[in-house]
Specification:
The protein is an all-alpha fold. The chain contains 4 helices and no strands. The chain has a domain of about 120 residues. The N and C termini lie far apart (about 150 Å).
Length: about 220
């Protein structure tokens, strides 16, 4: 009887042990699942961060490409504008030279033999102003701008109106005034044909007057 009781006790103990082992296995499975789920969650987050970084880099690259494209377009536009300005200056010079040739032809054929008929004005057709000449000194009745472009008319009262006025310059104008006027003419036209020294004497000024007349008549 005692042996049967002991056997029953061992059987019950074994059953409990098996149940405990089973429970422990279940707990272990749950924990493994939790760990697995946790790992999956971490991996998902890492993947999301990676995708976000890729997206940001792609956006930055696209923005950089757009910026560089804008700079490239602006650079091309600047070059086009520069070429257009150059062509415009050339066209202005051609048009100004044509006007000058027409005026000189009229002055030579019609005005040269008259003392009272007015010369046609010669527009500026050489760009810039001579730096060594500086800004013109005061000339009677003449108002200067700081700069003139190709095709601009000379300031009013700067050039002689006719042959009579040229003769008046030669006979009546005092040397300082004559020198200022002739150097101002050189400054406006920026043409070596009209060059006159700062300290030019009267003989040099008389020669410069003839150069001004030739400038009105001849190419």
């Amino acid at each position: 009887m005692a042996s049967e009781f002991d056997a029953l006790t061992v059987f019950i103990a074994d059953e409990k042990t098996q149940e405990e082992v089973g429970e422990m296995r279940e707990v272990s499975k749950v924990r493994q699942q939790e760990v697995s789920i946790g790992n999956v969650d971490i991996l998902s987050r890492l993947v999301a961060v990676h995708e976000s970084m890729k997206s940001n880099l792609a956006q930055r690259h696209a923005s950089h490409v757009r910026t560089m494209a804008k700079f490239d377009a602006l650079s091309r536009l600047d070059r086009v504008v520069a070429r257009l300005k150059g062509l415009t200056r050339k066209l202005d010079a051609v048009e100004a030279k044509r006007d000058v040739d027409n005026a000189r032809e009229f002055n030579y054929s019609v005005v040269a033999g008259s003392t009272t008929m007015q010369f046609r004005s010669i527009v500026k057709y050489v760009c810039g102003h001579p730096s060594e000449a500086g800004l013109p000194n005061a000339v009677d009745k003449v108002v200067f701008q700081e700069n003139y472009d190709i095709g601009d008319q000379p300031p009013y009262h700067l050039m002689p109106l006719n042959n009579r006025e040229i003769n008046k310059w030669s006979r009546m104008m005092k040397l300082p005034e004559l020198r200022r006027r002739l150097r101002s003419i050189y400054w406006f036209y920026n043409d070596e044909r009209l060059t006159l020294a700062f300290n030019a004497n009267r003989a040099a000024c008389m020669k410069a007057i003839l150069n001004v007349k030739a400038y009105l008549l001849n190419p």
